[in-house]
Amino acid sequence: MMLLNLVGESGPDGASLAELVAASTLEKPTVRRLLMALIRGGLVEQDDKTRRYHLGVDCYILGTLATPRHGLVDMAADAVARLAAASGDTAFVTMRRGSAAVCLHREEGAYQIRTHALTVGAQHPLGVGAGSLAMLAALPDAELDAVIAENASRLSESYPGLEPKILRAEVATTRVRGYALNAGRIVAGSWGIGVALRWSDGTVAGALSLAAIESRMQPPRDAELAALLASEAATVETRMSRGLNRAN
Amino acid sequence: MMLLNLVGESGPDGASLAELVAASTLEKPTVRRLLMALIRGGLVEQDDKTRRYHLGVDCYILGTLATPRHGLVDMAADAVARLAAASGDTAFVTMRRGSAAVCLHREEGAYQIRTHALTVGAQHPLGVGAGSLAMLAALPDAELDAVIAENASRLSESYPGLEPKILRAEVATTRVRGYALNAGRIVAGSWGIGVALRWSDGTVAGALSLAAIESRMQPPRDAELAALLASEAATVETRMSRGLNRAN
DNA sequence: TGGTTGGGTCCACACTATGAACCATGCGAT
DNA sequence: ATCGCATGGTTCATAGTGTGGACCCAACCA
């Protein structure tokens, strides 16, 4: 499942065997054998020419069958389109995946300078990035602690300037402010604003966010964008509760 | 992966442990352990109250990430909607999954009598059902033989009246006729018409189909519906080739 | 109260995954 | 032409992990 996930993260060009070995904690023969098993099951496929591994049809099939329960992107697609159109910047749907956030949908606006700091499939610990931070801040305190604890080592190692302590401070200001702001903390100059999305039972599902260069996120524009996000989020959330998808 | 698939097939109400044990060839402790592993990985989730198992968020995430490569339903959604609206009957998107066909999308028309012979998530051997038969007939002969051989035992056991020999005859007439017709072979009185969909490289991706009661599939209406299907299939196929999704 | 059904777990045992070492192939440089 | 070096892929003794019959428990119903 770790491998499946890595293949998913690898984007439209897929992943090579070597890349997967490097990204996983497994040895080459093991990776290869597991990939063969995934291929047999249809969850992964290998391009005959390039020898690279991609997600298989069965992933798509299972995903489609899981849509009635979890289909956030469908419910948010038009909201994201409106956000991108209205702002001219790039809009995203991010979803929670345990203690990480996955970017599932990206819609570019018309403005000529576009940040590519966040691409579809990318995963970061909760709190890293605007949408991701919005989700983290939306969690109940117990869960927040658990998530931060789980991510602690990865944060300190791979995300300098986003150590647990700083993250907690960010969460606090996010909660007061009402929306999450990423002031170029991951890629310098690439700013973002995000708001969380919840299922009708209150659990955090994902987030809507906007990204742009620093100059386009200064007051008073930042507040305007945040208002835009909040209104679209409300729209999406009513839709999420209407389709009474989830029993639990 | 077999279990994952079974959970997927089980529809929106999920599956109980006992059902999964029965449907799989595994023993109860094994099923339970594998399910726990799938739950750990986020591919499956268990409803705390009902104790039933459902597809998890990660299935949806992987499915979304696989959409650029395999996203048939998105490409066919509006065509299916038009089919259902124009015919008043129920329209389907089916996809190939090895030697089986999976129903991924179902759109009901306005007509008051609706067949529920095919529901989303249902899987049958290739050749069983209109869309499924359309796919089988669209395969090159070598592949057709392989598929029929693989399904032989299941066909004879579970689908009386659709033994390999009869299926081959059906394929022949389908190829001549240009579209697949299921004259109530699975559920008496429930008829269907289907046409195959191909990727731009010629490989069979899935099918579009319509289902209705027998009386609504008699000449000349059957031919009219087939024409409708063919034209929508053409639309979908041009869209499939435009998004040059697949390298291989 | 007693029987039945379904969910979930234990642990001796058998089988299966593991990875260091190895082979094969494609490609750029000399 | 030939070498060197990535990168993809495979082998096989060994360590370790999954397997399932038997069992427990709770809920439900007569």
Compute the number of structural domains of chain A. 2
> Based on helices, strands and strand pairing, what is the structural class of chain A?
alpha+beta
Helix content of chain A: 40-55%
> Do you know the CATH architecture of the largest domain in chain A?
2-Layer Sandwich
In quaternary terms, these chains amount to homodimer
Give the low-confidence spans of chain A: none
Major sheet characteristics of chain A: 6 strands, antiparallel
Kindly report the name of the CATH homologous superfamily of the largest domain in chain A. GAF domain
Question: Any chance you could write out the topology, listing elements then pairs?
Answer:
Two copies of one chain form a homodimer.
Chain A (H helix, E strand, L loop, with lengths): L1 H8 L7 H7 L4 H13 L3 E3 L6 E3 L1 H14 L1 H16 L2 E8 L2 E8 L15 E3 L4 H9 L2 H18 L5 H14 L2 E4 L6 E9 L5 E10 L7 H22 L6
Antiparallel strand pairs in A: 1-2, 3-4, 3-8, 4-5, 6-7, 7-8
Helix pairs in contact in A: 5-9, 6-8
The structure holds a DNA duplex (30 and 30 nucleotides).
